[in-house]
Design brief:
globular, seven-stranded parallel sheet, Rossmann fold, alpha/beta
Length: about 260
């Protein structure tokens, strides 16, 4: 197993500054090396402060492609849409010029949209210069959920697939997710976590146990990840305060440690 880097921060502000600096450096390196860079991001409330900070950074954003690790199969304008989240909080200010490659297609179901989604994903410069994962309290990451019927197919390193439709009783909507081999096709992976509860889940995930019970283990135990490629950043140690963030019609409660 390659070396992993674990960082703990006492406040959201410290984590955001550290991750934004590392991500922007990776994107600059990608632009310098191949004339363009790519960044894949996850949804949820945790990355919103990071998105807002990245949007303020000086980069050649017109040379950056942003894409999604997973997506709910809902209309792009829906509040549950990760595409909507990224457009609202990230692709604004200085980052307006970045190109977004979505996952959602006009297909009625995610299964029907798999082929078209894969064609979209093939437009992204790969390997990803940076890919940001989250983790649920059940140990899922991306839309790789424990108990999903096609989980084995989605984590098959030899499947040849970039994305796959996922349906599980743990999620309200049908999902589209990057497959495990697509996730691993990254120069740098970040696992971005927040809070003591997530730290406990992470500790459990590092213990012995079936990878299918906590799919984040497919990442943590992955021998194909080069040394130093996986960085785990978690906010811990202090009771949270709350700050309400607004943008357009969206309101998000940010839990801040510090």
């Amino acid at each position: 197993m390659g070396q992993r880097e674990f960082l703990e921060f006492s406040s959201s502000a410290l984590l955001v500054e550290a991750l934004a600096a590392r991500i922007s450096d990776l994107l600059r390196e990608g632009i310098h090396r191949r004339g363009q860079a790519s960044l894949a991001v996850s949804g949820g409330s945790t990355p919103i402060p990071l998105f807002a900070r990245l949007a303020e950074m000086d980069l050649e954003w017109d040379k950056v492609t942003v894409s999604l690790v997973d997506e709910r199969w809902v209309e792009p304008a829906a509040l549950d849409s990760n595409e909507n989240l990224v457009r609202t909080w990230f692709l604004c200010h200085k980052a307006t010029a970045a190109r977004l490659i979505p996952m959602k297609t006009p297909a009625i179901t995610a299964v029907q949209g798999e082929q078209a989604c894969a064609l979209l994903q093939r437009k992204i410069p790969r390997p990803y210069d940076c890919l940001i994962l989250g983790m649920g309290n059940d140990g899922h990451t991306a839309s790789l959920f424990p108990g999903a019927k096609n989980l084995d197919a989605a984590v098959d390193l030899h499947s040849g697939k970039i994305c796959m439709a996922m349906q599980t009783s743990a999620a309200a909507h049908e999902r589209m997710t990057l497959t495990l081999p697509a996730i691993l096709d990254s120069r740098q992976l970040f696992l971005h976590l927040q809070g003591e509860e997530k730290k406990k889940v992470l500790v459990k995930a590092q213990e012995a146990g079936d990878t299918r019970e906590m799919p984040i283990r497919f990442i943590l135990r992955q021998v194909a990840i080069p040394p130093g490629c996986l960085l785990v950043a978690v906010i811990v140690n202090r009771p949270p305060k709350e700050k309400i963030m607004h943008r357009g019609e969206q309101k998000v409660t940010e839990r801040i440690w510090g």
